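Researcher: Structure for this, please.
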Amino acid sequence: MKNRLRALDAPLLLPVLLLVLMGTLTLYSAGRGTSQANLWLKQSLWYSLGFVAMVYIATQSPRRIFRLSLLFYGLGILGLVAVFVIGKKIGGAQRWIAVAGQTFQPSELMKWMALLFVSHRLGLHPPEQLGGFELVKTSALVLFPMLLVLKQPDLGMAISFLPILVLIPLLKGMRTKWVALGLVLTCAGGFVAWNKLLKPYQKQRVLTLLDPNADLQGTGYQINQSRIAIGAGGFFGQGFTAGSQTQLNFLPVKTTDFVFSVWAEERGFIGVLLALGLFGLLLTRILEIARSARTIAETNFCVGAACILGLHLLVNVGMVVGVLPNKGMVLPFFSAGGSSTLSYFMGLGVVMAVAYRAKLK
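Model: Predicted structure, token format:
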């Protein structure tokens, strides 16, 4: 076990552990006095399982991991298809598979499997040798699971795949034609999504963002209560388990989508800076590892991992302060959820495997 721990990258591990500690305290406070009072214990178990998975993956050869990427990708697609056959429907969405009394969300792992496979494919040749047809095929490998996730429906999770698509033109050097093509496809995709894919409640979230005060007791309730909680935190916060919005249950979905509002109310501006600073350290270290990686595929994966984590951070924080619509995108290491927690740790395990291999040069 000691030898396995040596494979862990300390500058990457430290901010992760601190974020996990902060997330655990926040979930304890958010669930206090409710039916979710023991949620922090359940989440602690997922943190532990995720840590074990991360340690195991970190000791594996990155070359072996990437060789198995096609198998992982195929298993992920099977999981997404299985959701429509044996999946459990909750709140009008069919996204989960029940296993031994626990629910598991295959799409959480699928975005990392897609990143792994795409990174491997794009890493087989130097960027300048990648042809347009190869890039189209690779893009299709990302769009296919995205469409399956949209069908569930889960717009927030589908958006999580976007950093992988962005990675493709980046490797091509962001030439003008690729930027133009990306903008055209984005506009076309947005038009199609609004008219054909988005559900009425998803459209309403966008409209609520444009005018959050239009219906404070209806569609604007969540964002309004979140803003009140954040504002109530002031500079130093109201204190642990002392947030009025949280403890009086005015704040909605406070253990998942709006968990950062709980932290902001209790820890204030100083606490928000601390949390964002730790996320910044985490992302910076991943990008440093990407620079020292030994292969193109390893670099691709690390850059993609930073983009996925960064997107979740940006969207979740933007959502709770009301500058982005509520897309149900969780905050890594804060929000409750076994599937998401496990997937983040496994993704970081691959990053650590890359870092460990780079040290052995």
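Researcher: Any notable elements?
Model: The mean pLDDT is 82. The chain is about 70% helix and 5% strand.
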